[in-house]
Design brief:
This is 5'-nucleotidase SurE. It is an enzyme of class 3 (hydrolase). Nucleotidase that shows phosphatase activity on nucleoside 5'-monophosphates. GO terms for molecular function: 3'-nucleotidase activity; 5'-nucleotidase activity; exopolyphosphatase activity; metal ion binding; nucleotide binding. By secondary structure, the chain is of the alpha/beta class. The chain has one domain: Survival protein SurE-like phosphatase/nucleotidase (Stationary-phase Survival Protein Sure Homolog, Chain: A). Helix content is 25%, strand content 25%. The chain contains 6 helices and 11 strands. It has a 9-stranded mixed β-sheet, sandwiched between helices. Helix 1 crosses helix 4. The N and C termini lie far apart (49 Å).
Length: 261
């Protein structure tokens, strides 16, 4: 199996090292693992692509590259340049430092990389590690994802439905719970949730020279979403697996809008 690995935390991120080890385990001794990751952190860029400017691509080692772009740029560079148009069998994005459950998924560069792979027709998974008081101070805070990642990826590949030849392809949003590996209760296939009463916000600060600046602030990450949705099962100790597509249509609203025809 040929696997392309990327992330949004950057080429030197510890979560990327964990994911590369998982990818080697999944690929097997006869497989290949290629890495194309951002030269610098790209958290929160979503599915951004560098459409109006070029991105430098630097080879750091055998099958290992960094680019001055987003995770989606990295997938495009990996598929069409570094790997010379030989499609990978699988794209893995992560392992993100922090969860991409609930509304975080909409901002995530980690998911942006997986989404781009899906748009290229390649099976893809985005993997993120939830942090909390039970795992943030571990010697390896990615312990849960490191121990359970490879087996879970194999299970998802086996269970994935046959994809249609046309339309938006599936990709998977995987979030490992904020607990040590031994405390993981299993995996749950669940929908994306929404944290009520918490959201991103902005805070103003003034520089010494009097100029105004704005910092973006995250909300409380330990608010439960609805039952049987991603953040809620994560906080209960389960890995969440959420199948997604890039189709943003609100299908439930189409019928009401028929009056416009």
């Amino acid at each position: 199996m040929r696997i392309l690995v990327t992330n949004d935390d950057g080429i030197n991120a510890p979560g990327l090292t964990v994911l590369e080890a998982i990818a080697h385990e999944v690929a097997g001794p006869d497989g290949e693992v290629w890495t194309v990751a951002p030269a610098f952190e790209q958290s929160g860029v979503g599915h951004c692509i560098s459409y109006t400017r070029p991105s430098m691509l630097s080879q750091l080692g055998e099958r290992r590259f960094a680019t001055e772009g987003s995770p989606a740029d990295c997938v495009l560079a990996g598929v069409h340049v570094a790997m010379e148009d030989v499609m990978p069998d699988l794209v893995l994005s992560g392992i993100n430092r922090g969860n991409n459950s609930a509304e975080n998924a909409l901002y995530s560069g980690t998911l942006g990389g997986a989404m781009e792979a899906a748009l290229q027709g390649i099976p893809a998974m985005a993997l993120s590690q939830y942090f909390g008081p039970h795992n943030a101070q571990l010697d390896n805070p990615f312990e849960a994802s490191a121990e359970h990642g490879a087996a879970l990826i194999r299970d998802i590949l086996k269970a994935s439905p046959q994809e249609p030849t046309e339309g938006y392809r599936l990709f998977y949003n995987i979030n490992f719970p904020p607990v040590p590996a031994a405390a993981v209760k299993g995996a749950r296939a669940v929908a994306q949730g929404m944290r009520h009463g918490t959201r991103f916000s902005a805070q103003e600060q003034q520089s010494p020279n009097g100029r105004r600046y704005v910092w973006i602030k995250g909300g409380d990450q330990h608010v439960h979403t609805a039952p049987d949705t991603d953040a809620s099962v994560n906080l209960d100790g389960y890995i969440s697996v959420t199948p997604m597509r890039a189709d943003l249509t609100a299908h439930d609203a189409l019928h009401a809008l028929k009056v416009l025809e």
